[in-house]
Specification:
The chain is an alpha+beta fold. Helix content is 59%, strand content 15%. The protein is elongated and about 100 Å long.
Length: 174
Amino acid sequence: MGLNLDDKKAVVAEVSAELADAQSVIVAEYRGLEVGQITALRAQARQSGVYLRVLKNTLVRRAVEGTSFEGLAQHMVGPLIYGISKDPVAAAKVLQDFAKTNDKLAIKGGAMPGYVMDAAGVKALASMPSREELLAKLLGTMQAPVAKFVQTLNEVPGKFVRTVAALRDSRETA
């Protein structure tokens, strides 16, 4: 049974609201996946903060009209599952990781604001570290000079204490 006009408008509004804050949209064909597999994929997506939904392509085309994801319409053919996320890498990682273990999930393409990717582009995006990993690396890089400076300052009194201890030990033995 199809959706009535009010339901279709509600779906378009929901997808438009998700796209307003989105940094990436990934499109994958799910033909041949069983219900249990799609349920597992949805659970992974929820954990990563990815909006994952099977939608009618015509409704999504209406939702992306006039947005920076408008170029994605060329990939909207066939039974598709849409992954939309605020983290540019999260949706690509979830779908790419799932596609590694399930050959029936085929990534068709994706988009970032103003940039459309093919399947190879999505694979490259999925191999990038997440935002949290990049922030951790940046913090480690910023802390390294300060830690080395403190370590160097601590070395002077430490060396003095070791010298005094060596003198004490030499006098005790003599």
